[in-house]
Every structure is written in C-alpha cells, then in structure tokens.
Write a structure and sequence with these properties.
seven-stranded parallel beta sheet, 307 residues, binds nicotinamide-adenine-dinucleotide, Rossmann fold, 40% helix, alpha/beta, two-stranded parallel ribbon, 13 strands
C-alpha cells in the first residue's frame, strides 16, 4: 500500500511511518516542519515532502498514486490556539478541507483524520460517548470539530471513504518536552529527570485517558489496511482514567524515588476530566489492545533517557 501521512514528521506521524515501513508499506509524508522534526524520521526510508498542506500543488503532487491518507498535520495545543486562533484555524480547519478536496480530486479511496477529545469541551459526561453533545472550549477544539465534520461531510457529499478518530491524550516515544506547548507526560518526565519539580495546573485531580502511541498507530494502520469507514466520529482511547496526581505517583514508582510538584493556576480552555467510551472502537477494531500506563510510561521514559 502507498500511504500518505500528512504531518508525518510529528510525534504520532513519525511513529506511524515507522510501523508502516515495518509492515512494508510505501510511505510519503507532507510536513512543513512547523512543529515536526526531520530527525524524527532518522533511519526511515520515506519520501518526505517539506511543504504545507495549504500548498495546493505540493499537496497534489504528494497525493499522486496514493491508496490511503492518514491526515495528522495540524497545529496542536489549546494554549497555542488561544495565543493565535487564526493560525490554528488555517492549519487545522482550512488545511483539512484542502486535504479532503485534494483526495477527492486525486481519486484517493480512503482518508483517516485526527480529531480530538477536546471537542467534548464543557460536556461533563464520564465516560464520553461519541453521541454526547460537543461544546469546544478553545479555538483548537473548534478546529478539530471542523476537521472531523468535514471528513464526515465528504463521505456524505462525495462518497469519499473517511474515518474520523477522536484522539485523547496520546503519549510515547518521540513526544518532546522543552517547548512552550509541550504535553503533560513529556513535561513531567523531562522535569523528573532533571530533578526539578513537576508543574501541575490546578489541583492535580484533573484526569485524562492517556493512550500509548503504539496502540494508536496500530489502529490507524489497521484502519487504512481494511479501509474502515464510519458515518460518525470514533473515540480512539480505551476508557482509562488517570489523574495528574496518579500520573506523578506512577512516574515516581518507575523512577524509584518521590517527586516534587509545584501547583499553578488551572489553564483556560482545559477540560477537567476526559475519559472515552470505547464501545465504537472495540466494535470496529476488536483485536486492538490498550497498552497499560505503567508499561507505556516505562517505554517513554527509556526514550528520554536514551536522548
Ligand atoms: P505534532 O505537532 O507532533 O505533529 C503535527 C505535525 O503536523 C508536525 O510535524 C507539523 O510540522 C505538521 N504540520 C502542522 N501544520 C502543517 C501544515 N500546514 N502543513 C503540513 N504539515 C503541518 O502533533 P501530534 O501529537 O503528532 O498530533 C498529530 C495529530 O493528532 C494532530 O492533528 C493533533 O491535532 C491530533 N491530536 C493529537 C493528540 C495528542 O495527544 N498528541 C490529541 C488529540 C489530537
């Protein structure tokens, strides 16, 4: 299979590229390296096109002869979107429309897109089923709602085979700390290894459905292989629930010593609890198994220690 990964130089995209190559697929990547890194692809034999998905001719050229697309290119992070909503909108909402239009024009059969649990926003339901109402709390969440809804509308309007996943908090090797919009697990590991206090926004009771990147990439690749389409968004998480305080404890157990924390005010746009109802995922992908947090964290920790 010839697979185009948009945003393939990013955290999830580069893990997916590695798995796809291991399974003998031909991989093309389009990535403008705005938040991704060329060296994430070290050792891989992929065709990297350094360009934006908003560059129509670069996108059309990357799409030539492709069987399936996994569309991951986006500007991540809630705080980044609050600092610059227009940039997030262009990359994520307009960018997705460009990718879907490009796929339709190029006759690509199947497209998977990455939405986010942030679309549930103000909805307090636990766990969150895909039919729960959505109420985004940030421009990022709005842009991800546009991403998934455009993908589903292209299924209805043009017959394009699409699948829209809502990722929850994906973590694992390749996810970096050390930049303003880093995610919580890399921040915690980085601080812990430096012997610095772990910053917690709020009281630490905030909880997340942390999902190891390996299981996410296996699901993405199976979806492209079987060309799975679905008329509704699908949560890509396994219904686990870990508070930030529990995450600190897990990390402390792995490192074998207690860790200091420092509390900061809760951030605007952040949701309190995020936990997936995984019934749809299990029905569509019965063979996919979650990676337990302890083992996923341990592999992530190893990646940090090797660097
Ligand atoms: P990432 O920032 O590591 O990867 C995104 C990639 O997209 C980067 O390599 C970046 O350079 C590229 N990119 C950004 N704008 C682009 C553009 N205009 N043209 C081409 N490339 C562009 O992020 P990630 O964590 O790997 O996330 C991948 C996808 O999953 C994103 O769509 C994100 O919104 C979604 N998602 C991630 C999580 C998570 O926990 N990591 C949660 C929910 C949703």
């Amino acid at each position: 299979m010839k697979l185009l990964i948009t945003g393939g130089a990013g955290f999830i995209g580069s893990n997916l590229a590695r798995l796809a190559q291991d399974q003998d697929h031909e991989v093309v990547i389009i990535d403008d390296l705005s938040t991704g890194y060329r060296d994430n692809l070290d050792g891989l034999d992929v065709d990297l096109r350094e360009a934006s998905i908003l560059d129509a001719s670069a996108l059309a050229s990357a799409l030539a002869g492709v069987d399936s697309v996994v569309h991951l290119a986006a500007l991540g992070s809630v705080p980044r979107s609050i600092a610059d909503p227009m940039a997030t909108h262009h990359a994520n909402a307009t960018g997705t429309l460009a990718v879907l239009q490009g796929c339709h024009d190029a006759g690509v059969e199947h497209v998977v897109v990455a939405s986010s649990s942030s679309v549930y926003g103000a909805n307090p339901a636990r766990p969150k089923h895909e039919r729960e109402w959505v109420r985004p709390l940030s421009p990022y969440a709005v842009s991800k709602l546009a991403t998934e809804q455009y993908a589903l509308a292209f299924q209805q309007s043009f017959g394009l085979s699409t699948l829209a996943f809502r990722f929850f908090n994906v973590y694992g090797p390749g996810q970096r700390a050390g930049h303003a919009y880093a995610a919580v697990i890399p921040i915690f590991i980085d601080k812990a290894l430096r012997g610095e206090p772990l910053p917690i926004n709020g009281d630490g009771l905030t909880s997340r459905d942390f999902t190891f990147v390996g299981a996410v990439c296996e699901t993405l690749l199976e979806a492209t292989g079987r060309k799975v389409r679905h008329p509704e968004p699908v949560n890509l998480a396994f219904g686990t629930n870990t508070s930030l305080n529990e995450l600190v404890e897990e990390l402390s157990a792995l490192l074998g010593h207690p860790l200091d924390v420092e509390h900061h005010p809760a951030r605007p746009g952040d949701v309190l609890h995020s936990e997936a109802d995984s019934t749809s995922l299990e029905a569509l992908f019965p063979d996919i198994r979650p990676t337990p947090l302890r083992s996923g964290l341990s592999r992530t920790l190893e990646w940090f220690q090797e660097r």
